[in-house]
Amino acid sequence: MTRKKPFWETKSLHEMSQPEWESLCDGCGKCCLNKLINDDGDIFFTDAACWLFDRHECRCLDYGNRKSKVPDCVVLKPRDISSLHWLPASCAYRVLSEGGKLADWHPLISGDPQSIHRAGISVRDRTISENDVLDLDDRIIDWIE
Fold first, then answer.
1. 111 is in which domain, residue-wise?
2. Over the stretch 79-99, which tens digit does the pLDDT of each residue have?
3. Burial status of residue 7 (CB atoms within 10 A of its CB: 0-12, 13-18, 19 or more)
């Protein structure tokens, strides 16, 4: 009996349905961190997360309305992934767009949404709200891959 391949191995990002696309998010929370970019284009992650970010659940507190509440929130779309150089190397959208495979800790592979946290890939409980930051330069971190 031949086993059917999962959608992320048979479809391009552009071919995925909205539910399939959304399920690619591993819940790491890295995209919700404030980032700084210098004149050379180098990207620096901070531990200051969007004010809508739930630091324990690693999810947006108002996902459906995030763009209206945070106008500079970037809503990921298949056509934009290759130009979003700040997406971390572990991001499933980036991995798949670059022809890679999902990691063992990804919830679609493990079947467990907590696997990313146990693997230490997420930012769970390692962030502060951007509302509590005076200077983002003081919040630069080096633990994002």
1. 15-130
2. 999 999 999 999 999 999 999
3. middle
Total domains present in the chain: 1
Q: Which of 102, 142, 143, 139 lies closest to 120, judged by CA?
A: 143
pLDDT (0 to 100) of residue 138 = 97
Which residues, including other chains, have CB under 8 Å from residue 3's CB and lie 6 or more apart?
none
SS (H, E, C) 60-76: ECCHHHHHHHCCCCCCC
- Average pLDDT along the chain: 95
CB 13 within 8 A of CB 91: no
Global confidence as pTM: 0.92
Structure tokens at 27: 């819940």
